[in-house]
Amino acid sequence: MPPTPAARPNLTQGPILQSLLKLAWPIVFGNVLQTGYQLVDAFWVGRLGAKAVAAVAVSFPVNFLLIALGSGFSVAGSVLVAQNFGARHQKMVNHVASQALVLETVLALLLTVGAHFASPYILHLMGAGPDIFEPANQFQRVLFWGLTFNFGFLMFQALMRGVGEVKIPLYINLVTLGLNFVLDPLFIYGWGPVPGLGVAGSAMATIITQALSVVAGLAVLLRGRSGIQLSFAGFRPDWALMGRVFRLGAPSSVDLSARALGLSVLTTLAAGFGTSVLATYGIGSRIIALAIIPALGISLACSTLVAQNVGARNLPRALQTANYALGVSFTTLLVLSGIIWLAARPLVGFFLKGDPLVSEQSVEFVRIASLSLCFTGVQQTVSGAFRGVGNTLSAMVLTITGIWVFQFPVAWYLSHHTDLGFRGIWWSFVVANVGISLIAGLWYWKGNWHGQHQADPLGPQVAAAAPQEEKAA
């Protein structure tokens, strides 16, 4: 007889702020550790010089785009698990988790094959110069072959988050990040029988540790003591449920992909000003991405709590949770923006040594972009609340508006038609963050964004498609 999943804390009762913070801080720290893969890579690659940094920078948005395509479905898995967990439908929690993993794995394999063969064409499209083309191609092809592991661990984190278990993924991240820090110099520079692979070595170290993360995650899910109990029989395709996951996840996938495509376009825009500006953008955008991790963590916690309360048929508490999350996110990012502004120089120094021009440009970029971090928190939290009630379409619209209506047109105009030059790209972050946060805030406070998303999260047609042994249990 399979083990019964251990009881999880009931996040649909008790003090809201306490529940939010209890769930948010491990997510934030876990995301910092997950981003730590990129930081560790950047630390070691930065020792190879500005060209190596630029090679990674031009490849990063492409990899981010591919991960975004799969991450949307992990959002769907998390929301459906959370809603059913809040409704105390444990069998459907397990069933959703199994089918979400199947869907994610198939998608990852398809993207891996396609991206591998398209790699050179992608780099030409991105405007990679001949001085960085070959190392960039090697780097991103290795990363592409790790997409299945990357997707798998993203889904594992999302499923665990849906049942309120956020510490186990944190512990796995902590161990594998330490291993990645050891493997990076080994594969980049070589040692003994291990040949030095240069930039591609950092990607190799990353996918090895990600593979170990997936193995650990599957062991947790199959063991069944952390809120979800998987079985190999549960991986048989349930087309009705996978269709529901796909429909809910597709807008989130488009949402995240639009963000990634926006970063790719901005990278191409920066590349047009030369390798030094591209390296500047690569360093600055990484620091800003790190800085908004608290907003992303609070948004994910908000989404989970809202979804659980929707599943428990307690919409007023779900809305109160979103209100608390907005206040916490704005305040946290406001404080952090001041810290980032003051610490810009040592932060840039962590990523690059020996190039004064790129270093000075990067400090300027970070200080400009940090001015609007608190507004990022508003948009992220509102999107998290939308996703929690199953309204992934509205979250998608907010992202597309912020990137394609505000940021890219402003970046292009300021950089090509004003005296700001490439610095117009930096100022586009401020304009976009402020503009989309105002729209998100108005939509949240005035719109009926939650009114039509309160039905049973799976619906009778999916419940009817559940495995017969589960319905008979």
From TrEMBL:
Positions of transmembrane segments: 52-81, 101-122, 142-159, 171-191, 197-222, 260-281, 287-310, 322-344, 393-413, 425-445
Xref: InterPro entries: MATE_fam, MATE_MdtK, MdtK-like
Keywords in alphabetical order: Antiport, Cell membrane, Ion transport, Membrane, Transmembrane, Transmembrane helix, Transport
Keyword Cytoplasm: no
Membrane disposition: Multi-pass membrane protein
Source organism, top-level taxon: Bacteria
Subcellular localization, as worded in the UniProt entry: Cell membrane
Name of protein: Multidrug-efflux transporter
Species assigned in the record: Hymenobacter bucti
Lineage of origin: Bacteria, Pseudomonadati, Bacteroidota, Cytophagia, Cytophagales
